[in-house]
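Sample A.
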Amino acid sequence: RALARDVGKAVGVPAHLAGLRRTHSGCYALADALCGSDLSQASVLLQAMLTGVEAVPGLPQVAVCEREANELRHGRSIVSNQEHAQCWQRTQCLAVAHCNNALVALVRQKGDQLFPVRVFAVS
């Protein structure tokens, strides 16, 4: 929509879109989506659900041990070690901390520490 508006403004005429279809959103493609009739079938939904780290493939991932996971779950920071640095190139963006494929927290790196930004519920 913004593209049509901007092109119209650039050439000096009103412009609009007759249709708009999103084919990708991040790493998810329209081809991977379920159709409306599939949403009423529990077996189809369960098969399509992504769990653990596969549910957030667009974020850097940091593997943590159980002790570190417990620290993060309680809102405490952990020391970023060499293994973490290999997974995450010390940017200031968010990363997903996981332990044995279970999501632990969204973390942000500050200096040599990983701080939990959002902690995921423990079942």
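Sample B.
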Amino acid sequence: MRRADLRAMMEVPPGGNPRAGHVALVGRPNVGKSTLLNALIGEKLSIVTPRAQTTREAVTGILTTERAQVAFVDTPGLLEPQYALHRVMQHAALRALEEADVVLLLLDATRPAEVPDGEAMTMLRAARDRLVIAINKTDAAGSDGVKELASWSRRTFDLDAIFISALSGGALDVLLAEVVRRLPEHPFLYPEDELAVQPVRFFVAELVRETVFEEYDQEVPYAAVVRIEEFRESQDPLYVRATIYVERESQKAILIGQGGARIRKLGERSRTKVEAFLGRHVFLDLWVKALPGWRRRAASLRYLGYSVPAGPDDDRNSRDEAPAS
């Protein structure tokens, strides 16, 4: 589905007042929320990898026509928190769900048994009047998985799900039309030419982190976080200094590689992505530092710029754990 076609589906009836609002994209990890956001906006805003829990912070992309504006909020996957970073991710997702004008629950047809539960399910039930359900990956799943989730949607919420494919664009026009129909009549919330809420630096850091996921295995990508230290737009090429924080010195050594070979490759691939995103030449200066146990320490998470909900630190176990699926 081309972006022009999607924009056409957003038009409100002639003479109607403009519609605008926030739409939270929620669901279990790896159901395709980021792919859906990128497809709907027509730009790559959320990083996408085959691994679960790639998204850590809410990312807002904006789609605007003359009469309607939709601010889609991509959220971290709904999971049972195991340590401090998980609590940060869960908090971001549930806050977006609570504040949204429309809640778009995305289900994965290839994994029909994986549906929200716990606190997330309680909040989804409370948001039933604002809820739209979409079953994703229908082109890659058998009919049994689609039928199972469709039955679950009717049984749990008394709602019929929309069958889509975020990757191929299948039925995204139908989904978008339903979302716009649910939006409140309201003046636009953002400038009409704005595509995202987060600053450019955020997306540059995310592109570097995406490349870490692509280039490294095992625990390294999950132990890595990227923060932009300098961003000199007045220079040509644009100068960007970014620090990649990991949890252990051994992970730092893996990132750098023998003689710096791996960090150079990471820098080259990241720079290509950043230049394509910004449309200009970039000098990308990457540094690597160890910040022990940062995923489990609220103080470290705040230092790295995460919004940490109130609650006790979880520093009791500094051992790395594999991410929840």
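B remarks: The chain has a mean pLDDT of 91. DSSP finds eleven helices and nine strands in the chain.
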